[in-house]
Design goal:
Number of helices: 10
Shape: globular
Bound molecules: adenosine monophosphate, manganese (II) ion
Largest sheet: 7 strands, mixed
Strand order of the largest sheet: 1-2-3-4-5-6-7
Radius of gyration: 18 Å
């Protein structure tokens, strides 16, 4: 059993990179990739712990990509070579994220909520403050009933406190991932909010920008639909990966090492990464 999509406290997960590795070992995984949002600082920590514990580790990242509809997330998997260009670009992304976070705080204050950036930062373990941390704050303050409710009413497009995030282009992201020796893989493809046929056409177009593959199996989708994506990938020379999108034990339906309908993730999904 393996997992190729996970988060640590360096973005919006609840386990530190080394604790994530310990947890993966305890769950019986043989390999894991860390894919924090717009952040690669957890990778060396996880790598060191993985060497100590004897589990195979793949450094990774999850990048926000410009998209006209839905949300487009790109996984950079096995970014094991020099990642200095990526690191520098991500520093820029972090700066923009900080500006966006201040704008969200302003909207909340304008709505009469007594909140500071420090309040939100105290809910985030690492350098990345994401909308998930705003959601947790709104729940603590009894303004929202759940993460889902917080996103629906306040933090998603159309929500009271929504501020869009600046994103990279696919070509730029792919180039940086390739320069770091990694594979560029579309995460949870249905977040692009396209029907199956349009999604397939879209993904074929992405191949021209250097896309390597798709995360056909994700916790949020049913197994049959995921199998169709896998078949599409096979027919079109794309690699296939599978992941849980684990953020810690708190989020239901996102169990480490499990995907699509709680199916254990087979080691065969490493093949594409190593090809
Ligand atoms: P950000 O990178 O600040 O835009 O925040 C994105 C993060 O918020 C995602 O990685 C998820 O962890 C979380 N998120 C986004 N949309 C939702 C949603 N509809 N329900 C629950 N969590 C969400
Ligand atoms: Mn997240
Ligand atoms: Mn994502
Ligand atoms: Mn993710």
């Amino acid at each position: 059993m393996i997992d190729l999509h996970t988060h640590s406290t360096h973005s919006d997960g609840t386990l530190s990179p080394d604790k994530l590795i310990d947890y993966a070992c305890n769950q019986g995984l043989s390999a894991i990739a860390l894919t924090d949002h717009d952040c690669i600082s957890g990778n060396p920590i996880a790598k060191k712990q993985a060497e100590k514990r004897g589990i195979r580790f793949f450094p990774g990242v999850e990048l926000e990509i410009e998209s006209v509809q839905g949300s487009f997330h790109l996984l950079g998997l096995n970014i094991h070579k020099n990642d200095a260009v990526l690191a520098a670009r991500l520093e820029e992304v972090q700066k923009k994220r900080k500006t966006r976070n201040r704008e969200i705080i302003k909207k909340m204050q304008d709505a009469g909520i007594d909140v500071s950036i420090e309040d939100i930062a105290s809910l985030a373990g690492g350098e990345v403050i994401s909308r998930l941390h705003f959601a947790l704050y709104l729940i603590n303050r009894k303004k929202a009933r759940s993460v889902k409710d917080a996103f629906l009413r306040f933090l998603s497009p159309g929500g009271t406190f929504f501020i869009p995030k600046e994103a990279m282009t696919l070509s730029e992201a792919v180039q940086m991932i390739h320069a770091a020796g990694g594979k560029a893989v579309i995460a949870h493809p249905f977040s692009l909010k396209m029907n199956f046929k349009n999604l397939c056409n879209f993904i074929s177009g992405c191949k021209e920008s250097g896309l390597d593959g798709i995360e056909a199996y994700h916790s949020e989708y049913g197994f049959t639909l995921c199998s169709r994506l896998e078949q599409f990938a096979a027919d079109n020379g794309l690699i296939v990966t599978a992941g849980s999108d684990f953020h810690g034990e708190g989020i239901k339906n996102r169990k480490l090492g499990k995907t699509a309908g709680q199916t254990p993730i087979d080691d065969r999904f490493l093949d594409g990464l190593l090809s």
